Amino acid sequence: MRTFSCSPRLPLLRAPAATYRTVKKSREAPLVRACQRDSQKSYPEESRRAVLLGASAVASSLASFSEFSSASAESVGGEFASPNALAILNREGEISHTTEEWQQILTKQQYRVLREEGTELPFSSPLNKEKRKGTFKCAGCGSPLFASSAKYDSGTGWPSFVQPLPGSVTEVPDFSIFFMPRTEVRCARCQGHLGHVFDDGPPPTNLRYCMNGVALQFEPAVGEA
Question: Domain MsrB, which positions (predicted)?
Fold first, then answer.
């Protein structure tokens, strides 16, 4: 699993120790009791071991997810409450608009992706086949995000890049899918949702910035048709 990193870097989200202990106890106790009852039955040794290991993994995952949720709720006090972190949490960037203003600026599909974290259908964007030299910019604010030289064909159906332009994106933990933590990629300037980054890309970064084409605009280089 890829270690989350932020650019700009976000403070580490930690729940207070007392909160974690409470969550862990409440989530783990029923599972432990269930395992104890199962272990007293006349199952083969391997079956009992599988039950215990499975329950332990579930309890650990529940505790980790609850720890993050508690940290998000405990947004008052501590390093998590820094102005920059709260602004990113609320999707407030250098360029900020009200919901009504964004709906007027963006198309319905752009709004669904950039402001509501939607995902376009694979192979639906013409930018997936864009091979000209130029720059890919944010469809929400026009900020340059990716150079065409960083683009490659990942075969996934979404425009993919090995790296963004320096300082152009913000990467934040995404726990929207239970048991599947990911790293969300946003435009650093307007905090619009672009896509996600994965660690299965080609050299030299071994990263795959999987972007929604509708969240991007392509500007050809001078001399490109």
Answer: 99-221
Any idea where the domains of the chain sit in the sequence? 17-73, 98-220
Distance of CA 218 to CAs 45, 108, 132, 169, 221, Å?
A: 60, 19, 9, 16, 9
Smallest CA-to-CA distance from 139 within 118, 163, 166, 162 is with 118
- Note if 210 is an active site residue: yes
pLDDT in tens, 63-95: 444 444 444 434 434 444 566 666 676 677 889
pLDDT tens-place string over residues 97-132: 999 999 999 999 999 999 999 999 999 999 999 999
Whole-prediction pTM value? 0.64
* Residues facing 152 on adjacent strands: 160
